């Protein structure tokens, strides 16, 4: 158990390719896999590895995130000793810079008894044993250990950071252009001592060369002992509509679903006390993942359905993702569509997207004739 | 001093022998129900939804699962500084200790707990009934009538009235007689086991009742008749809605099936007045490529490859390929393997039904006790 670590989650993530789902929320709180939000994965991974102190540095538009995380109850982070800390964005900061968020909240680091830090973003979806990596990290004596995965479908990790590794050490870091080659994609999970983090923050401020700690680590891989740890489980990156759709569809594979939801511990999320899902007589549901609280009267195939969705008679939902509290009217046909929360699709509407580039219907829309 | 206007006391100590194997290692109120609930969730949620924030739960029989389930009451917003939920088992005191001899004795032994909150009214509830009710209108009625005790009643068919405790009332609702399971019922107003008492009055009668060595210290048998005899003001409060005492395997199965009805008499789907249940953080349900699910309820953590019809499936249940589940209630973590057939059955926690095995034939309800490994066909209960 990682008793000596604090978790730090940085949410200044790149949302430029996933705008339609981040109009009302940060990337970290995009609903995913019917009942979760993106941030549930890294947060639960941290908690499952024994971390009891997590600081979340949020950016603009955090209402949805704060509503979701609350006091941290689902993760057992509502505590007197340690627990959850949310650091709000202030107007003094530029969104992309995390150095300023750190600068104004240095007290958090000084006050904690923890000596080591796991630093991460939220967009990398995986179920990972952080404890094992921490042990490797400590044994190696490295200043920083970065977790990465060898992937072949680099187009699903567009503009992610790529590690060039030699003998286990990171020698340089570049950007993925998505040309389909094999790459070592950085999972943006960093192990380091608190002292190292504090010094890095100070250097960023003093020297003015880097505006983010992650950037600092990447640029100074040769000045410090920075090592790489290979992760061999399932990894999905939520940074574009295409990758969101692909990762969601991957979830229909039972092996991937089991791994993501329970391999190294469960993924926790806010409870909505939804009743069981009701399948009525005319329903026909196949190869789909469905959250509690829905009422299904129509056809659902290869799809992911959130909480309290109503799918009326004669409706057909195929290869689609429906967020919570949507109503899909009678005889509606949906194929390759992502429908954000609280949307109503009225009777007889037909929406068909591309199987790589689905149509996204924004939150709270009403689609009628 | 801070005080509470009303506090609730939930009777949850009964053994529930008529539920047979379902209560072998579990108190009746903690028996799973309706896919994601336990029976006591209904009454605890009713309290939460009626803004009653101080609840004592009287436990006695096999309380482990029940205690773990209730915890500090987080699920029902009952984790409070002043008030909240308390589990109240029998305890030792200066003059020794006793089990709770009856429903009234359970309250009597916890007079100190109730006095601590110094309430005007005490709401006495049963932990094993399925219903949704706002207790506030009943309290208003109680105050309006200036009653000493108000008892919630529900109309039952006249021919079934002899199975219930029947209240005979005057036109204004005042009770003049209480008959426990009368052979020739004079009315069809059955007691729902929901009482509001003025605490001072109740305390007096509890103490009197303790002095009577022949008393079985029960609300229905002793306290209510004694109050009537003493001329206290008892009123019946009519409840219109769904209410079910899931006392037997048959009524347990029926109440589960009621949830599947098109015009389900108890609305679980409204976004207010929810029934709250412990969250087990399970993955969403998965319905496989060749599965068929008709008129059924399924919850998080289920994996369905086979056929499900008219059934209630609880969390973590696996139903294999070509397996068929019909008219059944499947409790948590059951594994029904490929090709198995389960008809009109109640299948207990953690049961494994092996490949191709047949359980039930639809004539009578078959009950499979928890954790059983079913390797041979079981056709009759």
Automatic annotation (TrEMBL), chain A:
Residues 283-356 form the Glucose-1-phosphate adenylyltransferase/Bifunctional protein GlmU-like C-terminal hexapeptide domain. It comes from the Bacteria. The keyword Protein biosynthesis does not apply. Residues 18-155 form the Nucleotidyl transferase domain. It holds the Pfam family Hexapep_GlmU. GO terms for biological process: glycogen biosynthetic process. Signal peptide: none annotated. Keywords: Glycogen biosynthesis, Nucleotidyltransferase, Transferase. The keyword Nucleotide-binding does not apply. One of its GO terms (molecular function) is glucose-1-phosphate adenylyltransferase activity. NCBIfam families: glgD. Belongs to the bacterial/plant glucose-1-phosphate adenylyltransferase family. This is Glucose-1-phosphate adenylyltransferase. It comes from Caloramator fervidus.
UniProtKB/TrEMBL annotation, chain B:
Residues 291-361 form the Glucose-1-phosphate adenylyltransferase/Bifunctional protein GlmU-like C-terminal hexapeptide domain. Pathway: Glycan biosynthesis; glycogen biosynthesis. Residues 8-261 form the Nucleotidyl transferase domain. Keywords: ATP-binding, Carbohydrate metabolism, Glycogen biosynthesis, Glycogen metabolism, Nucleotide-binding, Nucleotidyltransferase, Transferase. Alpha-D-glucose 1-phosphate binds at residues 100, 165, 180-181, 191. It comes from the Bacteria. The keyword Nucleotide-binding applies. This is Glucose-1-phosphate adenylyltransferase. It comes from Caloramator fervidus.
């Amino acid at each position: 158990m990682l008793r000596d670590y604090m978790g730090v989650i940085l949410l200044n993530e790149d949302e430029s390719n996933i705008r339609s789902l981040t109009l009302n929320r940060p990337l970290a709180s995009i609903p995913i896999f019917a009942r979760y939000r993106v941030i549930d994965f890294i947060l639960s991974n941290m908690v499952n590895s024994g971390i009891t102190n997590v600081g979340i540095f949020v950016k603009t538009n955090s209402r949805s995130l704060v509503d979701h995380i609350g006091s941290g109850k689902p993760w057992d982070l509502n505590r007197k000793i340690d627990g959850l800390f949310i650091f709000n964005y202030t107007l003094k900061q530029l969104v992309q810079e995390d150095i300023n968020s750190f600068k104004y909240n240095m007290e958090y680091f000084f006050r904690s008894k923890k000596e080591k830090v796991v630093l991460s973003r939220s967009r990398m979806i995986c179920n990972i044993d952080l404890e094992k990596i921490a042990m490797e990290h400590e044994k190696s004596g490295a200043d920083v250990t970065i977790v990465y995965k060898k992937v072949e479908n680099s187009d699903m990790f567009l503009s992610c950071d790529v590690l060039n590794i030699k003998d286990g050490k990171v020698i340089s870091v570049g950007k993925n252009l998505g040309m389909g080659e094999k790459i070592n994609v950085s999972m943006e999970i960093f192990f380091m001592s608190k002292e190292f983090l504090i010094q890095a923050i100070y250097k960023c401020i003093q020297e003015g060369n880097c505006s983010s700690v992650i950037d600092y680590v990447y640029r100074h891989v040769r000045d410090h002992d920075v090592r790489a740890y290979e992760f061999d489980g399932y990894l999905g990156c939520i940074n574009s509509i295409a990758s969101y759709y692909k990762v969601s569809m991957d979830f229909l594979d039972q092996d991937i679903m089991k791994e993501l939801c329970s391999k190294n511990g469960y993924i926790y999320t806010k409870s909505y006390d939804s009743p069981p899902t009701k399948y009525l007589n005319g329903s026909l549901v196949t190869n789909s993942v469905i959250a509690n609280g829905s009422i299904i009267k129509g056809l659902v195939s290869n799809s992911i359905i959130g909480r309290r969705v109503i799918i009326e008679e004669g409706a057909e939902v195929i290869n689609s993702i429906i967020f919570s509290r949507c109503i899909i009217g009678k005889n509606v046909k949906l194929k390759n569509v992502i429908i954000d929360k609280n949307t109503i699709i009225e009777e007889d509407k037909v929406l068909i997207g591309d199987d790589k580039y689905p149509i996204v219907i924004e939150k709270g829309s009403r689609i009628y004739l | 001093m801070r005080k509470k206007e009303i506090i609730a006391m939930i009777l949850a100590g009964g053994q529930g022998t008529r539920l047979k194997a379902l209560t072998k290692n579990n108190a009746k109120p903690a028996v799973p129900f309706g896919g994601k609930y336990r029976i006591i969730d209904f009454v605890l949620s009713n309290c939460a939804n009626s803004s009653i924030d101080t609840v004592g739960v009287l436990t006695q029989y096999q309380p482990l699962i029940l205690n773990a389930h209730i915890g500090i009451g987080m699920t029902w917003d009952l984790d409070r500084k002043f008030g909240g939920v308390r589990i109240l088992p029998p305890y030792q005191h200066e003059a020794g200790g006793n089990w709770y001899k009856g429903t009234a004795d359970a309250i009597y032994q916890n007079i100190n707990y109730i006095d601590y909150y110094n309430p005007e009214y005490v709401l006495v509830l049963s932990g094993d009934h399925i219903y949704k009710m706002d207790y506030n209108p009943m309290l208003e009625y109680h105050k309006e009538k200036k009653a000493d005790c108000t008892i919630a009643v529900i109309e039952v068919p006249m021919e079934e009235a002899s199975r219930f405790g029947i209240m005979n009332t005057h036109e204004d609702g005042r009770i003049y007689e209480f008959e426990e399971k009368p052979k020739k019922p004079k009315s069809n107003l059955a007691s729902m086991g929901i009482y509001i008492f003025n605490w001072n009055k109740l305390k007096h009668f509890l103490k009197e009742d303790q002095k009577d060595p022949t008393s079985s210290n029960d609300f229905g048998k002793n306290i209510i008749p004694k109050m009537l005899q003493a001329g206290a003001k008892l009123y019946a409060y009519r409840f219109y809605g769904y209410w079910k005492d899931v006392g037997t395997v048959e009524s347990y199965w029926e109440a589960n099936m009621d949830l599947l009805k098109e015009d389900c008499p108890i609305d679980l789907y409204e976004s207010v007045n929810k029934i709250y249940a412990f969250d087990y953080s399970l993955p969403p349900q998965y319905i496989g490529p060749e599965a068929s699910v008709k008129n059924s309820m399924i919850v998080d953590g289920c994996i369905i490859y086979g056929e499900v019809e008219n059934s209630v499936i609880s969390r973590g249940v696996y139903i294999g390929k070509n397996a068929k589940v019909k008219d059944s209630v499947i409790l948590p973590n059951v594994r029904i393997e490929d090709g198995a057939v389960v008809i009109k059955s109640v299948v207990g926690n953690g049961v494994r039904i092996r490949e191709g095995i047949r359980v039930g034939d639809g004539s009578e309800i078959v009950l499979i006790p928890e954790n059983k490994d079913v390797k041979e066909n079981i056709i009759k209960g």
